[in-house]
C-alpha cells in the first residue's frame, strides 16, 4: 500500500513537471513523506532547483543525497552532470562523467554527450570531436544521430572561430610546399 501511494505521487510529480510547478512540489512532498530516500523524488527536486530556480548548490545537494542512497540511480547522472557543467564545477563534472560511464545500464551515448559538452566548455575541441565518434558507436536511434550531427557542426564552427582549423590547414599547406621543393 505504501509503495502504491509513493508511486502515485511520483507519477503525479513527473507528469506535472515542468508545466505545473506547484503541483510538482506538492506531489514530491507527499512522495518523500512516504520514502525520504527515494532517488527519483530527490532527483526531480534537484532538477526543479537547477532548471527552474537556478539554485545549483541546492540542486547538487539533492543529487548527492540521491546518489548516497543508491549509487546506481541511473536517472540522476545526466541531470547532475548538467548542473555541474552549468555551475562551472568542471573538476567534479569530469569525475562524475568518468564514474557514470562505469555503471552497468547507464545510457552511454547520453553520458558521452555530456563529456563532449564538458570538453567543449573547456575548449578542448579536438578531444570533443574524438569523443563524438565514440558517441556514434553507442547511438541506437535517429534522433540522437541528428543531435550528434548538430553537435559536430557546432564544434567545427568553434574550431574555426578559435583558429584551430586554420592552423591545421596552414600545416598541410607547408607540407605540400616542402614536398614540391623536394621534387624539384
Account of the protein in words:
There is one protein chain. The chain is mainly alpha-helical and 184 residues long. It has two domains: 106 residues, Alpha Horseshoe (Serine Threonine Protein Phosphatase 5, Tetratricopeptide repeat), CATH 1.25.40; 62 residues. It is 80% helix and 0% strand. Helix 2 runs antiparallel to helix 3. The longest helix is centred in the last third of the chain and has 21 residues. The protein is elongated, with a radius of gyration of 22 Å.
Question: Secondary-structure blueprint of this entry?
Answer:
Layout: H1 2-16, H2 21-34, H3 39-52, H4 56-69, H5 76-86, H6 90-100, H7 108-121, H8 125-137, H9 142-162, H10 164-183
Helix pairs in contact: 1-2, 2-3, 3-4, 3-5, 4-5, 5-6, 5-7, 6-7, 7-8, 8-9
Q: Categorize the overall geometry.
A: elongated
- Stretches where pLDDT falls below 50 for ≥5 residues? none
Secondary structure: number of strands: 0
Q: What's the average pLDDT?
A: 92
In helices, the fraction of residues equals: over 70%
Class based on secondary structure composition and strand pairing: mainly alpha
Order of helices and strands: HHHHHHHHHH
At the first level of CATH, the class of the largest domain is Mainly Alpha
**Residue fraction in strands:** under 5%
* Domain count: 2
Round the Cα radius of gyration to an integer and report it: 22 Å
CATH architecture classification name of the largest domain: Alpha Horseshoe
Number of helices: 10
CATH topology of the largest domain: Serine Threonine Protein Phosphatase 5, Tetratricopeptide repeat
Q: Superfamily at the CATH H level of the largest domain?
A: Tetratricopeptide repeat domain
* Main sheet record: none
Amino acid at each position: 500500500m505504501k509503495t502504491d501511494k509513493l508511486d502515485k505521487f511520483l507519477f503525479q510529480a513527473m507528469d506535472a513537471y515542468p508545466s505545473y510547478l506547484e503541483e510538482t512540489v506538492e506531489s514530491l512532498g507527499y512522495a518523500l513523506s512516504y520514502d525520504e530516500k527515494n532517488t527519483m523524488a530527490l532527483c526531480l527536486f534537484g532538477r526543479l532547483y537547477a532548471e527552474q530556480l537556478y539554485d545549483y548548490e541546492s540542486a547538487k545537494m539533492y543529487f548527492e543525497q540521491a546518489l548516497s542512497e543508491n549509487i546506481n540511480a541511473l536517472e540522476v547522472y545526466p541531470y547532475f552532470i548538467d548542473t555541474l557543467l552549468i555551475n562551472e564545477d568542471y573538476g567534479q563534472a569530469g569525475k562524475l562523467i568518468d564514474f557514470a560511464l562505469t555503471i552497468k545500464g547507464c545510457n552511454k551515448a547520453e553520458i558521452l554527450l555530456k563529456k563532449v559538452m564538458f570538453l567543449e566548455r573547456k575548449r578542448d575541441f579536438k578531444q570533443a570531436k574524438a569523443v563524438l565518434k565514440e558517441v556514434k558507436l553507442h547511438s541506437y536511434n535517429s534522433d540522437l544521430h541528428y543531435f550528434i550531427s548538430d553537435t559536430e557542426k557546432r564544434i567545427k564552427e568553434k574550431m574555426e572561430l578559435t583558429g584551430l582549423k586554420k592552423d591545421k590547414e596552414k600545416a598541410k599547406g607547408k607540407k605540400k610546399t616542402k614536398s614540391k621543393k623536394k621534387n624539384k
